[in-house]
Amino acid sequence: MIAYYVHHQGSGHVHRASSIAAQARTPVVGLSGRPRPAGWTGDWVDLPDDSDGVDASSRDVTAGGTLHWVPRRHAGLAERMRRVSETVARASLVVVDVSVEVALLARLHGVPVVVVAQPGERTDRPHRTAYDLAERILAPWPVRPAGGWPDGWTAKTVHLGALSRFDAHPAPAAGDPCRVLVLWGRGGIDVGPDRIAAAAAATPGHRWVVAGPHPGPGAWPANLTWLGWVDDVWAELSAAGVVVTHAGQNALAEVAAARRPAVVVPQRRPFGEQDATAAALARAGIAEPTGSWPEPAAWPALLARAAQRGGTGWDAWSTGTGAARAAALLDGLAA
């Protein structure tokens, strides 16, 4: 059995885990603070909250800088780790996406660990512990230089390319060139609705639709529609001529699967995760990355450049086979 820990923040971790588990021959048990995802066929272990009521300034949550989150005498953390221990002790392999603490706990049970890497600066002491102890490191992006990574990490890293729940879908035909999809995620957004409205107002020849949190009633431009969170993201991607999105791995994987022209606006994340990804896209010439949300006057030219660039560059970012490759590797390690 493979035990697969899924981080609760955002939706990318659970989409990635679901895609890989669906391709694996070995039974996969999920562990997470998130609910069991639709379509998950194996067992699912619900993990309690380990942050409720925590004052990070007074509970030594990093254990002197050796870990990322271990608040003292927290009942939720204690029960969470008990449930993890109970599961990983029965496993032949543990996949961690992502938690330094779970990776260390699993290895202390004598179980081999595969760590899913995150972009950004990951050479702090806790990340070094997790990456050092890992049997393999799965990188859900194409091969690219990893500044500051020790040779030992590079040698055991498998670059999968981006993984999307839509990888099995054929890329749709070109969308409406005047339709702009703003695709947000659940991991946090730096851009307020007024700035999106100003961008729409500056591009009256385009129709903007926003898949993400709904701001409620307002004096919004006529060419701006707030969809709220949508169930059928693929339909919105297929209809769009250009996608404006953040630099989270899941959002980019879904844009890549649809091969859509894109403007990528990195959001603030720990360890510079999205900034690192946006920089990689810029180097590869795949999309139109920006350092921050552009001023209204910049949007007409920015959308034109993205449309002219097109979406074929995503071929280098996502082959559509990442989940199958990951599953085959995990099956081999678990055997």
UniProtKB/TrEMBL annotation:
Checking SUPFAM superfamilies in the record gives:
UDP-Glycosyltransferase/glycogen phosphorylase
**Domain Glycosyl transferase family 28 C-terminal as annotated: residue spans:** 231-287
State the superkingdom.
Answer: Bacteria
The molecular function terms in GO held by this entry are: hexosyltransferase activity
Tell me which PANTHER family the record gives.
GLYCOSYLTRANSFERASE (PTHR21015:SF22), UDP-N-ACETYLGLUCOSAMINE--N-ACETYLMURAMYL-(PENTAPEPTIDE) PYROPHOSPHORYL-UNDECAPRENOL N-ACETYLGLUCOSAMINE TRANSFERASE 1 (PTHR21015)
Please give the name of this protein.
Glycosyl transferase family 28 C-terminal domain-containing protein
Q: Which organism is it from?
A: Pseudonocardia broussonetiae
Which classification does the entry list for the species? Bacteria, Bacillati, Actinomycetota, Actinomycetes, Pseudonocardiales
